[in-house]
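Write out the bound-state structure for iron/sulfur cluster.
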Amino acid sequence: MKKRYDYIIVGSGFGGSVSALRLAEKGYSVLIIEKGKWYTKDDFAKTNWNLKRWLWLPSFGFYGIMKMTFYKHIGILSGTGVGGGSLVYANTLPKPKKSFYNNGSWAHLLQWENELAPFYSEAKKMLGATKNPQLEEGDLILKKLAKARKQEHLFNATDVSVFFGEADEEVSDPFFKGKGPRRSGCTFCGACMTGCRHNAKNSLDKNYLYLAQQLGAEIIAEQEVYSVIPLGTEDGAKGYKVFSKSSTKKRNHNMEFEAAHIIFSAGVLGTLNLLLKLKESSLPRLSKQLGHHILTNNEALIFSVSKDSTRDLSKGVAIGSILDVDDKTHLEIVRYGEGSGFWRIGMLPNVTGNNLLLRMGNMFAKLLKHPLSYGRLLFVKDFAKQSTVLLFMQQIDTTLQFTKGKHRMKSKISNGPKPSAQIPLAYELAEQYSRLNNAKPMVLLTETLFNMPSTAHILGGAVMGSNIEEGVIDSDNKVFAYKNMMICDGSMISSNPGVNPSLSITAITERAMSIIPPKD
Ligand SMILES: Cc1cc2nc3c(=O)[nH]c(=O)nc-3n(C[C@H](O)[C@H](O)[C@H](O)COP(=O)(O)OP(=O)(O)OC[C@H]3O[C@@H](n4cnc5c(N)ncnc54)[C@H](O)[C@@H]3O)c2cc1C
Ligand code: SF4
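---
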């Protein structure tokens, strides 16, 4: 490996992968440093009970693709590995509605909807977005719900980044005129969120990263960047020194590199953890807005669990359909593959109540009223076959902030009400859906006990602004007060999309990269 690069990219998720390909195409030498492991199709867990291959929990020796992080006010699901969140994600690529472009700290900087339109098209093409061709039982129940709410016209099959060739039949690259890797068709096994073992999911290692490597970009896995120091001058004009350490081996295995430019693409948790720490040491000029404007997409994850053991709700792509409940709210049907029943260990009935006592009272009342029903739900034969997850997402203003803690970040309420697990509209939809599904709604115990919501779409924290007082980066993703430094990942998202965000992260990074001139 070289020791000095034109660009070092921290993290290989959506922002990092797009940056790597576009910079390599422009003739720059590129190194991506990724904390997680390289995964090939046979490495993925068969079910999410294989915690070693599914979860990222290094202190237990688990080096999988899915990370769970709990803060005081929010539980966060995110991805780790070469390809970042694309390894664990549910492939869904919706485009946000108008209000995304006209809200938040970036709204006054550009006419974002027009500006980003060509980059959304490019992102869809690169990620291979295709309409899900096969609605399954859970999706058809959502369609029924839509009909009951007189919203059938707002129900749609999702656009997903999946190759729908002949199931399990390998063919030469169908997306990039043969320049990409060989691929196989989707089997509709529902296991996208434990990693696709059929080579059908268009994760980033099958498109952006693969093509970037063909052009000479280098990827080093299992290394965590822990420090970045400007070289020579304080503002980074002469580049940066980058320090990393092994994230998987017990023995020390430290590395050092130099780069003319650095791009932070470590996802919201990775980028903010690192930059909040560096603001107190080597990068003190970073904006005071760092860690502010954390967006949670106002999410609720509600399981609709059926008592009927003859059913199989696990078939289909992980997210097969979407309902636009109103212009700020979306509901999606999510599934895990057969045998993936990990979440059952944290299930409780969903109840309302402003404090713990009230919620516990309501929960015991429900359990005592239907002891047999709930007993059977907790011990269903195959939790994945008998349950559907309802993913509820909404655009509302957020009030969270991340600050540096002693060992890791802490969450803090900024102004206004804190994010809540109990969203009346989400509960109403879950009850309606479950009635049609002959099922009962259940939620994670963190929601019932602590009213702590969970999200798979944490965003913001390094938002755009017109100056350093307003934001951490400018409208071209350049970090204020530093030269040759950019942020391209979920932390740049400056307004709640109210839908799954990967397509937007890809499109905004495509735009930022399009502005960089070719080398020489
Ligand atoms: C279960 C699940 C399902 C999801 N489904 C969808 C979906 O259907 N559609 C959708 O749009 N979104 C979905 N998401 C969300 C999506 O995965 C994220 O929004 C997206 O991956 C964020 O992209 P990113 O560019 O911010 O970085 P990420 O994809 O999060 O990648 C960041 C990478 O940086 C690495 N990293 C972190 N710190 C360091 C460090 N210090 N040094 C080196 N490397 C580091 C991480 O290991 C990670 O690989 C889902 C998420 C989860 C968890
Ligand atoms: S449904 Fe199965 S085969 Fe299809 S993309 Fe998901 S994991 Fe791969």
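---
Residues 4-131+195-295+457-515 form a domain with the FAD/NAD(P)-binding domain fold (CATH 3.50.50.60).
Residues 89 and 193 are 6 Å apart (CA to CA).
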